[in-house]
Amino acid sequence: MKKIVFGAFIALAFLGASCSSDDGGSTGNGENGGGITPPNNKIKVIDKIIIDSKFNDRGKVEEGEATVDFTYVDKKLHTVSDLDNDFYYKFIYDDKGIVKEVESTQLEYFPGGDQLVTTKYVVAEVLGLTPFNFGKLGVINGVDRGNVVDMTFYSYNYNNEVVNTYSSVMKYDDKPFGPFHTLNTTGAVDLSKKTQVDFGNSKGAIMGLDYANRVLPSNNPTYLKHTLVEGKEEVEVVITYTYDANNYPVSFVYSIVEHFVSNEWDREENKYKEVVFTEKVDGNAVIIYKEL
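The structure corresponding to this sequence follows.
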């Protein structure tokens, strides 16, 4: 669960921003991720995040601590990792200073023992495509103040047929997106404004050809509910922040409740039965920034 949570955070930090590096403020109308507030005027990047959590798995409680460190080289985000080596992200750049690859190293379980597995993601294979076919992945149903608040996702089988549909509902605060300047060191902000996306011909809030930054948040996420439509699986996340004088989120408390389905052997009926289990993570975190 910890790797899932941290992985989601990294994905959000890598993709989530609303303006290009030369934007001086908000467009005020929410168009193209303009949002309702400008980026923080004082430029600070994330140095580390210190997390305390309590994990409740079907009544079994486990407490944990973790520190996520951010390192920079020549004012570019270089690595993101935790001290226990559960995960490690390395950012690789082209000659223009734009991130071109991300190497992800995760501790994964194998029958013979846990092993560190490294996977390379080529950014150009996604953001470099013009246009990227987002319409096949899902539909953006609602946008509020430059933030996507309602989405539908699809999963496919080997025959390229939709097998599952998922619904995601999100909420945000009214402060500028905290990791903006951290993300901006990678050049991905400008890249997102230049990457065309085909949002499809559905009746969603965003349709046809537009740019990738349309799906990027203007503010800090405070709520997520991700549900398997017509199913029993669901994840709900609630986050509450505290801010400094420059409106950076400097700490937060969070709760993650996950309902998932498992097939368990019923000894009395001598067969497998579908059972819904609940896992919950409660925690708090401190975000430490620094000026480059």
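The first helix runs from residue 2 to 15.
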